[in-house]
Fold Cation diffusion facilitator family transporter.
Amino acid sequence: MADTPKPPGKQSNLVLVAALAANLGIAVAKFIAAGISGSSSMLTEGVHSVVDSGNQMLLLYGKHRAKRPADHDHPFGYGRELYFWSFVVAILIFAVGAGVSIYEGWLHFVEPEEMTSATLNYIVLGVAFLMEGTSWYLALREFAASKGRMRWWPAIRHSKDPANFIVLFEDSAALAGLVVAAIGVWASHYFNDPRLDGIASIVIGIILALVATLLARESKGLLIGERADNDVIRAVHRVAAAYPSVSSVNHVRTIHTAPDKVFVAISVDFDDALTMGDAETLIEQIETRLKAEIPALSSIYIRPEKAENTNVIPAPA
């Protein structure tokens, strides 16, 4: 299954912690620079960093909660709680990050405030770019390792670990925002028009809104429930159909209960000559082999069912 994204590794928390540390330090510097210079785009960038810091804390909390073992009320575990917090993060980026940025930019455009120091802003933006760039590189490296040979966009669409691509998108938006903020500061001084700094703040807000919309769309799909990749489904078909007493595999239905856990339900037509006791033994053998070949299968349900009594769905091509 070379084309299937690898399960998230232990380095995922490192990426989140690195991004959190960078954003907290950057936020303080941006607010100080905004207070001294009066730059709207710098204030917007400070809010952006605070929102990103809160997002990383929520993702760390979600990953911690998702590790809880299954219990009576949640027999498949708490893995999908991470998907809930990922969706909350997307909403926060849109409502707080983008909303405050656009609002602050509009206020600065309507009532422009003269900036006093561009040099300080450039220094803070340069340091922030280096720190955000480091965090972005760590997130990019981890996602590149997890996606295998898949192309970037399909890997993002098929990824079941939202923490990985959320940090990558957040950092990408942050770097783009820093560039826009720098252009806004420069243009305001060069053309002696502080309203341009407000326009830069609005552009930053639009970038955040677009990123938030994309993240919400991906997180929503995971929260509702997405099937496993085609390679996993094909492997389940192959293993179950390999036994001579299996007449046909009618269908395989899967759903991710966590980034690295999959529930699978298999409809199988057994040979009519097979006794009930032999069928039970065969089901145990199939389950054992499936767990050995596909460790991500956390729960397996095999239902004996005549092919003529159900819609037979072939394995993905």
Remarks:
- The longest strand covers residues 246-258.
- Strands lie at 246-258, 261-270, 297-304.
- The chain has two domains: 12-224, 230-309.
- The chain has nine helices and three strands.
